[in-house]
Amino acid sequence: MAIRNDMTMETATTLIYDGSFNGFLTTVFKAFEERLHIADIQKNSIGQNGLFSKTETVFTQMDKAKRVWNGIRNKSNSAIKRIYFAYLSGHKGIEVLLYRYIQGLFQKDGGISGDFSNDLYLKISQLAKSVGREKHRMEAFVRFQYTQDGIYFANIEPDFDVLPLISKHFKSRYADQEWIIYDIKRSYGLYYNLKSVEIISLDLKEIHANSILKSSVFSETEYHYQQLWNDYFRSTNIKSRINKKLHVQHVPKRYWKYLSEKKEAV
Amino acid sequence: MSVMLQPFKYTNYGIYPKFNWNISIIRNISIFLDYILMTMSFERIREKLNILADAAKYDVSCSSSGSQRTNKNKGLGNSTGMGICHSYAEDGRCISLLKILLTNHCIFDCAYCVTRKSNDVQRAAFKIQEVVDLTINFYRRNYIEGLFLSSGIFKSPDYTMERLVRVAKKLRLEENFNGYIHLKSIPGASDELMYEAGLYADRLSVNIEIPTISGLRLLAPDKQHEDFTKPMLAVKNGIDRYRSEKKIIRSTPTYAPAGQSTQMIVGATGETDKDIMYSATHYYKTYKMKRVYYSGYVPVAEDSRLPSIGSKVPMLRENRLYQTDWLLRFYGFNVTELLNDQHPNLDVDVDPKLGWALRNLQHFPVDINTADKRTLARVPGIGMLSVNKIIQARRFRPLHWEHLKKIGIAMNRAKYFIVCNANHWYHKDMDALTLKGLILKTSQGKFRKNYSTQLQLFNE
Questions:
Q1: Are B38 and B102 members of one domain?
Q2: Which residue from A150, A154, B125, B367 lies 20 to 30 Å from B350 (Cα-Cα)?
Q3: How far does B118 lie from chain A, in Å, by closest CA?
Q4: Do the chains contact at B99 and A236, CB–CB below 8 Å?
Q5: Does B318 share its domain with B374?
Q6: Domain boundary assignment for chain A
Q7: How confident is the model at residue B13 (pLDDT cuts 50, 70, 90)?
């Protein structure tokens, strides 16, 4: 990483932002515009000052964030996706990594896109890939339960903050039913009201994992269908081909408590 | 009382547990009766599902990808072309579709099949509406990507096919369902029905099951080879017709957008790997198959013509056949390179690409920094993803061992077949046998415990 080594004599700046993705893009805008030498980019909730750097707080500005977004997207569609996915990994120090990566993208010689022999690029690609994998898992492992109020409800606890990524998938798939997907770890959820998707937060008294006990929240038929699904899960298995190792590899145990077909195994 | 007629229609259910004592007692009694009926019909559906899912599970296809069907008019479902495995059974196989038979009553007596006429098993049949309701309700809960509907053949092939088509039609037209539908083509069904099936289904398939004609004569004497190929041809023609009409009339209705597939049973009739892969190649070419599946024979009957009950499922062999299939479809191999009269069977102890490389050492070593894509793809231990990464990465700098390791190639195999920007190369002029021993010693295989190294000495 030889970027900006010539500037080490300048005071390095640590930028503090509000923790949103747009906030992060605004800091990138500021750093580029003022040609800052960046020591670190931190969420305001963390706030750890370096000994030899000055600190500045950046306020999120949508127009600036948008310019950065468009700038990167015009450069490469896959890059903007990679950046957003990697950002959602919440990896410690991801902001600076992404900042260096964006710098790399705008280098004269065409940038570092596709440079699988560059450690920074590899790291970002891997982070983006693991977030992508989690997104795909959630599209697969969400299990809706039908409530008495006529809403399809699901709890999730993903490793990364993937709700923003799965919203569109569920909206276009379940366009004719009301649904809620609630992330227990991050205490917010998505609610589709037959028109658009809203972000909601709930005061959940109990977590609706798959318990063998029935809850009065859900309709009687809900439990019938769960039973049928469980039966199907068992009948479709070929006993003489049993391969538990492969099974657990594909369906890691940490997801089991929300999968109705694994009810009895939990 | 629509409930009586359609006991599993979802929309009627919400009302059951909410007793309202203000309305007349008669209404309450009727609700109570409905409730009893629902419970009874639930138990009946449960029983049918167990029988008909159990009978359908030997069909290995679970693909739900390759179809574009966008949600229309706020309907249900959306296929983006990407398949999703919603769960995995304990045998490690993907569960993506509700895979069931419409019925396991069958007029045929194919020896390899669990639903054959002479087999003493419980029989059941779904009503069309029952399949529709199960599909919709599973789909709404995000359990599945769609329906895979097959059937035993009752009365006649056309009668059966027509019922399958009616399920798909109902899902598409009445329920506005845009999920994935895979229908089985019934051997012997008419071209007109096959055409209609393709209008509602994403994929159609007919299982050839027995790779050789002599095997078919032995195990399924009532079926003719043409019974299988005729519907395949009808589907292929349907797809071709759609493609050419689409160029002229944009609104031409889609026809089987996810193509057709077939399946072969492996290890039931003593066929060689060469027999299997040569006929697979034939089906890929002649009928433009999307996929050919290989299914290790699971003994389901005591029959002198077949491996006895309790014989092991040939899973390793099945795995090697899939590896070969991939080499043919994505790696630019020709089937005659991998299997021929000198090598009618695949190696057990090494994967088919490594086996080919060991027989063709004259093509190696390959220079990672200059070789073209086709050549890179032939190096053992380098997959297509790594090939693309190597090609992208080497634009920036010549690659050395450390880079290759990080890109993620399988070094334990690849390193003997390549050279790169380094002082030290692993490629030495070793003969095939020594090299093979060295690779086997330093690597692990998931099936390694299934065969002993002793045995291999005699095979060489």
A1: no
A2: B367
A3: 22
A4: yes
A5: no
A6: 5-133, 142-265
A7: very low
